[in-house]
Amino acid sequence: MSKKLKRTNLFSKDIASLLYAYGDSPQPLVETVQCVDELVSSYLSDICTSAYKCAQTVNRTKIKVEDFKFVLRNDPVKLGRAEELIMMNKVIADARKQFNNLEGKSMKRTTQNDDELEDIREEDGEDASLNAGSAPEPVKRGRKPKKKKTNAAAKA
Question: What CDD domains does the annotation carry (predicted)?
């Protein structure tokens, strides 16, 4: 265990909810929550200290994800969960990038379409200010309707 930490109660609300989820009363004792909070805080402090020492052995001052993986290497359950969370973090970051990129492209496309419509109106001699309040007619996109075969074409 690490050195005694100040009683900060960092996770008290979360721990109270977890205790209730695992079968404790809806309002667990304050002493119980404080005890579990101290255990969690000291465990996290130990893990971070070990990861820092691991980074120092490689002459680094910053801790990397690999340092935490190295510290958790003897506990396959915790290591697997950590790798799963790292992978999900990457997936979420990639999805966020794609969403931001698509959002920017669609905004550019709509502004270009509005500018093009104004240019077309001016070329046709229409006053752009008269039609500014009205919405442009929607452009139908998609497949053209299929031509029906006649009996003569079907027989040939």
Answer: HFD_TAF13
Instruction: Determine contact, residues 36/15, Cβ cutoff 8 Å.
Output: yes
Residue by residue, DSSP assigns 2-70 as -PPPP---TTHHHHHHHHHHTT--SS--HHHHHHHHHHHHHHHHHHHHHHHHHHHHTT-SS--HHHHHH
Find tokens 């996770």 and name the residue.
11
Contact 53, 71 (CB under 8 A): no
Same domain, 12 and 51: yes
What is this structure's pTM? 0.56
Q: Which domain holds residue 84?
A: 74-104
Whole-number Å distance between alpha carbons of 46 and 44? 5
pLDDT tens track, the chain, 156 positions: 555 656 678 888 999 999 999 999 999 999 999 999 999 999 999 999 999 999 999 999 999 999 999 999 999 999 999 999 999 999 999 999 988 887 766 555 555 555 555 555 555 555 544 444 555 555 555 556 666 666 655 555
